[in-house]
Hints:
The chain is an alpha+beta fold and 477 residues long. It has two domains: 10-181, Creatinase/prolidase N-terminal domain (Creatine Amidinohydrolase, Chain A, domain 1, 3-Layer(aba) Sandwich), CATH 3.40.350.10; 186-476, Creatine Amidinohydrolase. 38% of the residues lie in helices and 13% in strands. The chain has helices at 10-16, 24-37, 65-71, 98-102, 108-115, 125-131, 146-156, 168-181, 186-209, 216-229, 290-309, 316-333, 341-346, 374-377, 415-418, 421-426, 433-437, 469-476, and strands at residues 42-45, 51-54, 57-58, 79-83, 86-90, 119-121, 139-140, 233-234, 239-241, 261-266, 268-269, 278-283, 404-407, 410-412, 444-446, 449-453, 458-460. The strands form six sheets. A five-stranded mixed sheet has the order 6-5-4-1-7. Residues 1-19 have low confidence and may be disordered.
Amino acid sequence: MQLLRxxxxxxxxxxLTPAFAPPLDILKRRRQQLSVLFKHxxxxxxxxxxxxxxxxxxxxFRANSHFLYFTGYSCQNAAVCLQxxxxxxxxxxxxxxxxxxxxPEPSRDAIAQLIGASAAFPLAELGSxxxxxxxxxxxxxxxxxxxxxxxxxxxxxxxxxPAPQAAGLDRELAIAITQLRLCHxxxxxxxxxxxxxxxxxxxxxxxxxxxxxxxxxGIRATMEQVILAQDMTTAYGSIVTVHGEVLxxxxxxxxxxxxxLLLADVGAETLSGWAADVTRTWPVSGTFSSSQRSLYSVxxxxxxxxxxxxxxxxxxxxxxxxxxxxxxxxxxxxxxLQGNPTDLVxxxxxxxxxxxxxxxxxxxxxxxxxxxxxxxxxxxGRQRSDRFGLGYLRLDRPLQANMVVTxxxxxxxxxxxxxNPVWRSRYQEIVNWDRLAEFADVRGIRxxxxxxxxxxxxxxxTADLPTAIADVEALVQ
Length: 477
């Protein structure tokens, strides 16, 4: 949103501006914690809304997550400099013209007061401050939109690279942010609990609406209506599909039929940007077929085993391998895979049907801090594997208290994998292809929950949404 210069009583703009900023003491604590980890000035840009198809028709604005984390406030074309725990705001005063389209909004000084900035200046002065005595050796994180990226490079007088390719102070800043944001404070966890609660209600509504729906789009509309009615938005593009074998399927035009499984990956995001991420798979008819029930039980066993293993000190990579082991054991029991399950996992045979990682970090981003790449996801000194069964693992760190992760094993029959001549040849004798054909009514199953690591174990933030077969069928029926 563009800030307005239109002079108006503070009571008016405050009624038009969402009051979702966390308490100032929380924000100041975050800033102070970063100053301990990173001794140089750090500049964060909020970004601006990209155009949808012409300049005046933009997507809804959502501020950069690092900007949100340290300011708690969402406004376009703003920047903050954080140095020694002290925050300086750079933003232009609202223009009179924008009042016509967007209504009155707070002045620069009002925003500074709201977020606890020690000083506030026009955005154009940021460049002179960085080149002058105010700010030296400033580091930053690449903004998500191209317009802001150009401003970053012009102001800093140098290239700004994506965090995984960054060097020097920019890389040091990314490492410090990761250390700080890996474990959530009480204000963040409160927001995530709200997002989780609304997400649970959205999934319940989607299951209950299935009987009257004719297309995926109808179920999606029901689920997102629950989220919008709570003044939240979706944390990512919803996946509501009978083609669960397409992992990120964003089409909703397919008709649904009684023999289909519907996979819904839908999560809410609070006004302050904190996310939930939940997937459930249910039978359109209200009753799983025998083959669907068998494979759902395998995925559920992996889901439950992995959640049970979550506690501080456990390596997330081992949780992923546990999911692979349980999946392999189940597929051997069903006669789909042939051999010793442990050997099959070592050969990555499970990845034919479970090709992605078991989950990821969750926080202000649905894949939290993924703009920082493997700096965030991987412990320092570790590198992503090139193995078929490990290459898509998004998180390879020991778990710590107050981290939130997703647990989301799945089974998929992806034509691009199963018909790939390389994999087909490699696993020709390991897969019982005739037996697999008996499960043709299962395109994709995923079961996903949001799990908080506690000091002694874990808490499933989305536990109110059932996963047991009988409970899922009852909700749909």
